[in-house]
Amino acid sequence: MDKKKRTRFIIIICCILAVILAGIIATGGHSGEEEPVKMVMKDAVLHESARINFLGIMTVNPAVISAYTVTAIIFVFALIVRIFVIPKFTKIPGKFQLLLEQAVGIFDGLATSNSPQRHKFLGAYVFTAGTYIFVGTMFELIGAMAPTVSGGSVALPAPLADINGAISMGVFSYCVILSGGIAGNRIKGVLNTLKDFSLPISMSFRLFGALLSGALVTELVYYYITTSFVIPVFVAVMFTMLHALIQAYVLTMLTALFYGEVCTKEE
Predict the structure, then answer these.
(1) What are the boundaries of each domain within the chain?
(2) Torsions phi, psi for 170 (to 5 deg)
(3) Ramachandran category for residue 234: left, alpha or beta (phi over 0 → left; psi -120 to 50 → alpha)
(4) Tens digits of per-residue pLDDT, 248-261?
(5) Which of 15, 158, 193, 263 could pair covalently with 140 via S-S, beta carbons 3.0-4.6 A apart?
(6) Tell me: the pLDDT tens digits for 204-235?
(7) Interatomic CA distance for residues 236 and 234, integer angstroms
(8) Distance CA 43, CA 46 (A)
(9) Buried b (16+ CB within 10 A) or exposed e, 79-93
(10) Which 3 state secondary structure label does DSSP give 166?
(11) Tell me, what DSSP letter sits at residue 197?
């Protein structure tokens, strides 16, 4: 970087810092919200006051709308790739083909290494679950808004930031592990799986707690005006990307690990 570019970069950084400082001084460090921070945090978890009318049938949490939206996005994208992209794959892969093959290879390798005997279904499940967790968590960054029954609007959260979504993912993963025990060891596999009766609870709350912590930190940063300039952008992106990658890996790794243990035939 030459001297002129370095000087220009320093000037831009100083201008950004000056704008942030001016905003903090102008607001005087007071919160711009009339609602107590305790209520803000409670609404972020329970969504009691920010419910959405679903097709005129019932009122649901915003995470339900997020779950359907993320499912539709993944389904349409997978359909487009299967119909228009995969038939054009070549022996020398392009960038998108290489990216797709690398993603599939990671989850297939995870399934194969933990369950060498029965890994085809496991590989498909962990790829699907990992994709859903990653895309669902990153969906929060879009900031899509939806009208609430109270007349306001709410930003759609990550589907798994709702306790019901996290429990559903944990229980479904446990059922997949149970199916591996039945296929591999019949009654013994069922008994081995049922020994870890706390597994769906731990998987659910680990997933829920990790995703919710990022949402709550972002809510706190936005709540106080002194930290609501530029900082929330970095905080939201950092927490969201880290949680998307880490939780997708953790849940799929635990599922593959326990699936391999219960479906391996005992000598």
Answers:
(1) 1-30, 85-142+159-263
(2) -65, -45
(3) alpha
(4) 888 899 899 889 88
(5) 158
(6) 777 777 766 666 666 666 655 555 555 666 66
(7) 6
(8) 5
(9) eeeeeeeeeeeeeee
(10) helix
(11) T
